[in-house]
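Weekly puzzle thread! Below is a chain. First person to post its structure in token form gets bragging rights.
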Amino acid sequence: MRYTPNKDLLPASTTIEQIQSNPDALRPSPFQFRQSKSTGKWHPPRYSRRQQADLVKEARIEGLLHLLPTSIKSSVDDINLNNSEKPFNWQEKAAFDVQAKSPRAVAEKKFRGSLWERNQPKRQAAIEENMENMQQKIEFWKLDKEQRKKKHTPPLPF
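Winning reply:
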């Protein structure tokens, strides 16, 4: 008895005649998610991405990459590319990107910094302004303290 794939996992336009005539061509890719037509639930791929990567590596080494279905780990360009058609040029100088990259250079968003780092320039400006006026503030404080002391001291010595 031949295996026919579950009708729920095939495209809606698939007919029974197509399944019987060429069942291998209509089998869903084991590397991709598929949706059940009856329940609407998504089924995970048969092979995880790590397993897909291992299969693609092995197939690339053996030269059998064209037999695997396309997936995230292997593209159509990889399948069409034959390693023997593009020999490695040993005389050519390797062009590597040798610029030092910070950990945040990879991210597209700029690092905002912590709250204290963002508020630091304002705080420094306020501190400098206060330090410039410090002598006046000290004088004002001393005079105010003397006035408060005179105000609260009784006129009589006892």
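Puzzle host: Confirmed. Bonus trivia for everyone else. Residues 78 and 85 are 13 Å apart (CA to CA).
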